[in-house]
Design goal:
Blueprint (H helix, E strand, L loop, with lengths): L1 H22 L4 H26 L3 H9 L5 H10 L3 H14 L3 H15 L2 H7 L6 H14 L3 H7 L6 H14 L3 H14 L2 H14 L9
Length: 216
């Protein structure tokens, strides 16, 4: 409802501004340019910022909860909050929407990790397009198989700092090294933003609460 109110307010103000400029014989180019620029700024504030830049967990959560009609985004909220029934429903929607194996792969791998179904993760990994994400899930598979040394070596190829730190936190947690796991978990939180920051934060609230105590 809050997001709808902001949209209505924005379009009303934009309409008033454009009408004022038109009545006062402003250049059509200037009117169009103003409208486009205002719309772009609004889009960045309302969508891009919470999606990829925001650090406030409550704001990202509000954004994700408003994305029920966008299953590719809403699934992050569902997984992060362990909503079992909705998880199945959202996955069914995504599988119907995306028919190609490469388009389904990341969702299947994430769902496999969510359900602790490593067979599903293994089947999805070869079809994941992006190398960092493919290596991320490959490292998880190695860690789950008890191959911690290979997992550590494998994650070195990952460029995204939050991924490396999150994986190290998981490896150290499995090894019972809580203090080191907390250190890496905080690194992952500090180097992540937007939706990924939210997902990590919610996960650590459950399995490693010490990691979120000093992280906003």
């Amino acid at each position: 409802m809050k997001h709808l109110w902001w949209k209505i307010s924005f379009y009303f103000v934009l309409f008033v501004v454009v009408l004022f400029m038109a009545i006062n014989d402003y250049s059509p180019v200037l009117i169009v340019g103003t409208a486009v620029m205002a719309t772009l700024i609004f889009f960045i504030i309302q969508f891009i910022y919470p999606l990829a830049l925001e650090k406030r967990v409550d704001r990202v959560e509000s954004f994700l909860r408003s994305q029920k009609n966008t299953p590719g985004l809403y699934i992050n909220y569902v997984f992060a909050n362990r909503l079992e029934d909705e998880a199945r429903t959202i996955m069914e929607q995504l599988m119907r929407k995306y028919k190609q194996a490469a388009a389904q792969a990341s969702y299947k791998a994430a769902y496999g990790v969510y359900r602790k179904d490593m067979t599903a993760v293994q089947e999805a990994v070869p079809y994941i397009r992006y190398s960092d994400y493919r290596a991320y899930y490959e490292t998880i598979l190695l860690s789950e198989d008890g191959e911690s040394a290979q997992a550590r070596k494998h994650l070195e190829s990952i460029k995204k700092p939050w991924m490396r730190s999150a994986l190290l936190a998981e490896i150290e947690l499995k090894a019972g090294c809580i203090e080191t796991a907390v250190k890496h978990a905080r690194e992952a939180l500090n180097s992540s933003r937007g939706v990924q920051h939210y997902v990590l934060h919610k996960e650590y609230e459950r399995i490693l609460p010490q990691a979120v105590e000093l992280v906003s």
